[in-house]
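#struct-help
A.M.: can someone run this one for me? Single chain, 93 residues.
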Amino acid sequence: MADYLAPELARRIDRQLKDAFNDPDAVRGLKVAKSLAAQLEREHPSAARSLREGLEDMFTVRRLGASDRLARSLSCTNAIESMISTVRHVSSG
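D.P.: on it. Structure tokens below:
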């Protein structure tokens, strides 16, 4: 999504999305994220489409009632990227 926005606007939207994704109330967080997409629609339709892509899935962890720490871990790709890096390293030798 940030690729479609000016850097300052992208930073502002990222901060608002971070707050939405970290909201313990998944319904409220999703509502905020959808509202951001609606605000972007008129002047930045590509960014709005990018934001809406998979948006419902982004709140699944919260809807499951995961703790903050677990939700952050499951919502981050670091564990996946680490595993891929390990597999590449092991399989290249």
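A.M.: thanks! The chain has a mean pLDDT of 86.
D.P.: also worth noting: DSSP finds seven helices and no strands in the chain.
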